[in-house]
Amino acid sequence: MSTPSSPTAPYAAYLFVYFIGESEDGEQVYFSLSRDGLHWSDLNNGQPVLRSRLGEKGVRDPFILRAEEESKFYIVATDLRIASGKGWDVAQYEGSRSVIVWESEDLVNWSAERSAEMDVPGAGCVWAPETCYDEATQSHWIFWASMVEDGQGGRKQIIYGSHTKDFRGFSKPERFIERGNHVIDTTIIREGGWYYRYSKDETKKCIVLERSRSLTDPSPEELSSPDLDSLFGVEGPAIFKFNDRNEWCLLVDQYATGKGYLPLVTDDLAGGRFRILGPDEYDLGETKKRHGSILNLTQAEYDALMKAWG
C-alpha cells in the first residue's frame, strides 16, 4: 500500500500488475482486472501491456502505486530477464543495479520506460522494488533487495531503501531490513497507525510478518503467524485491502511448485491469522500470475482500462 490519500470517488475494483514467468515474453508487464479482488480477467488478450527495451530488456516483480500528491501512477520493476539464459548466479551477483520505471496520469497512457540506478556499492542486483509513502518525509520510500558483502567474507541479500519524490532523484540508499540469512521480497501496508511488513526469509523459506509505528524503524516487532510459517516454498507477497469490508488479501507466489499465486484472507493483520482460500473461492484468470501487485481502482479507472484493453 503506497498511497498518501485516496481519490474522491470510492474504490470499486482492482488492477493486478504482474509478470508470468521465464517464457520468451513472460518477463514483461501484464494487467488483469477484478470486481471483487478474487476473480480476475486478463487484459490485452493475455499479452503484455508494457514492455521494457532497456537494460536486460525484460522486467519482473512490477509494483504499481498511486501517487496522489502528483495525480500520477508509477510502476517500478526489477530489470531482469532470466529467459535470456544468463542464469540465477549471474542475476544475483552480476546483475543490474537499476529499476525500470513507467508513469501515467490515467493508467492507460504510459510514458516510455526509464532506468534508475540504485547506488549501492558492490551490489550484485536490485530486486523486487516496492514503495510505501512516508508521511514523515512527505516522500516515497522505495525499497528492494540487493546482494552485498555481509562483512564476514560472504554475501547475502539485504533490503535497502531510499527516498524519492519523483522517481528520478533518489536519496543515498540505506540498509533497511537485514537478517542472519538472505531476506527478499518485502511488501508493506499501513493500517491503524502501524506499518505491517511481509518479507521472504531465506532461512525459513516462508513469509515473515513484522510491524512498526514508523515506516523506516530498524527494530520492528516480529509478529507470530503459524499460518504463514506453515507455507513453505513461497515468496513475492502482495497485500491489499478489500474495497467493501475490513478484510485484507495476501497473495503469495508458490515458486517451489510453480503454481503461481495463492490468496489468503485475514480480518486481523496484527493477529497474523490467515485463511487459505479453496480453489472454488477464486479464479486468477488465464495467465499464471507471478510476483506483482494490486491497485484499488475507482469505477472510472476500471472503465478506462476495460475500454483500452478489455
Automatic annotation (TrEMBL):
Keywords annotated in UniProt: Carbohydrate metabolism, Glycosidase, Hydrolase, Polysaccharide degradation, Xylan degradation
Pathway where it operates: Glycan metabolism; L-arabinan degradation
An annotated Gene Ontology molecular function: hydrolase activity, hydrolyzing O-glycosyl compounds
Pfam families: Glyco_hydro_43 (PF04616)
GO terms classed as biological process: xylan catabolic process
PANTHER family (UniProt xref): ARABINAN ENDO-1,5-ALPHA-L-ARABINOSIDASE (PTHR43301), ARABINAN ENDO-1,5-ALPHA-L-ARABINOSIDASE A-RELATED (PTHR43301:SF3)
Family: Belongs to the glycosyl hydrolase 43 family.
Protein name per the record: 1,4-beta-xylanase
